[in-house]
């Protein structure tokens, strides 16, 4: 008997450098190609207040002021992805934080070299994802649907 798997959700932010470099479609395609489902998405200009709430765990660290300036410097795309092991999968697709350390084949490894401009943010745990998603989306803004063909993506091999 197989155990029932829980679908996770994660928040992804395509940062100002991804928008300015016109990489949104290519980055979103990576998540979709892997089988993750977009259940919410919008383009926003992040306020300083929202940025400070988003990055509150980093307050007091040397890079914090620059991070707030960077994330508020232009529009961002915020989206909620859903799938089995969604957080782990999304973080693997993103690659290491600094583009110059990220493996080829990852978003940061293929599109980034900077330590500051790292293209994308993804929640690091289910608890963080819940908190971050609530910063940007109401429950009514998140859809619950099953795309055609999803049984070919998440079906576990039983044996």
Structure, explained:
The protein is α+β, with helices and mostly antiparallel strands and 159 residues long. It has a single domain, classed as Alpha-Beta Plaits. It is 38% helix and 18% strand. The chain contains 8 helices and 4 strands; from the N terminus they run E-H-H-E-H-H-E-H-H-E-H-H. The chain has helices at residues 16-20, 24-34, 48-54, 64-71, 86-94, 107-111, 126-136, 151-154; strands spanning 7-14, 37-44, 76-84, 120-122. The protein has a 4-stranded antiparallel beta sheet with strand order 2-3-1-4. It is globular and about 45 Å long. The mean pLDDT is 92.
Secondary structure blueprint with pairings:
Layout: E1 7-14, H1 16-20, H2 24-34, E2 37-44, H3 48-54, H4 64-71, E3 76-84, H5 86-94, H6 107-111, E4 120-122, H7 126-136, H8 151-154
Counting helices, strands and paired strands, the structural category is alpha+beta
- The tally of strands reads 4
Characterize the main sheet.
Answer: 4 strands, antiparallel
Mean pLDDT: 92
Gross morphology: globular
- β-strand percent reads 15-25%
Number of helical regions: 8
CATH class: Alpha Beta
Q: What's the CATH H-level superfamily name? A: Nucleoside diphosphate kinase-like domain
| CATH fold-level name | Alpha-Beta Plaits
Q: Quickly count the domains.
A: 1
H-E string: EHHEHHEHHEHH
The helix content, as a percent range, equals: 25-40%
User: Which architecture name does CATH use?
Assistant: 2-Layer Sandwich
Task: Strand order, main sheet: write it out.
Answer: 2-3-1-4
**Distance N terminus to C terminus?**
9 Å
Regions with little confidence, pLDDT below 50 for 5+ residues: none
Rg to the nearest angstrom?
A: 16 Å
